[in-house]
């Protein structure tokens, strides 16, 4: 049961970290210079939604990788 709680905390923290990293990375592209001022609000919403999508996908890849590394030990158990 303890592993299940640790896994849940790792999942939540991983999602938030990767979403924050994706948001920072997308902001550093400075794409807002190409958007007209009337559409800045919609662009910010798209930026947030895109960063959630990219961050979630990266987090799922990371968690899947960690899970596969953990399961790799079963290959060597006699």
Tell me about this structure.
With 78 residues, this protein is an all-alpha fold. 77% of the residues lie in helices and 0% in strands. The protein is built from 2 helices and no strands. Helix 1 crosses helix 2. The two termini are 25 Å apart. The mean pLDDT is 93.
Radius of gyration: 18 Å
Strand content: under 5%
Uncertain regions spanning at least 5 consecutive residues: none
Which sequence of SSEs, written as H and E, runs from N to C?
HH
Q: What characteristic shape results from the CA principal axes? A: elongated
Task: Summarize the entry for a quick read.
This protein has 78 residues and is mostly helical.
Features:
78 residues, mainly alpha, membrane
Strand and helix map with partners:
Elements: H1 2-28, H2 40-72
Helix pairs in contact: 1-2
């Amino acid at each position: 049961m303890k592993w299940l709680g640790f896994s849940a905390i790792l999942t939540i923290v991983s999602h938030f970290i990767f979403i924050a990293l994706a948001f920072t990375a997308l902001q550093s592209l400075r794409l807002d210079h190409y958007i007209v001022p009337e559409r800045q609000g919609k662009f910010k919403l798209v930026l947030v939604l895109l960063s959630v999508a990219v961050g979630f996908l990266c987090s799922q890849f990371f968690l899947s990788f960690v899970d596969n590394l953990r399961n790799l030990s079963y290959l060597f158990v006699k």
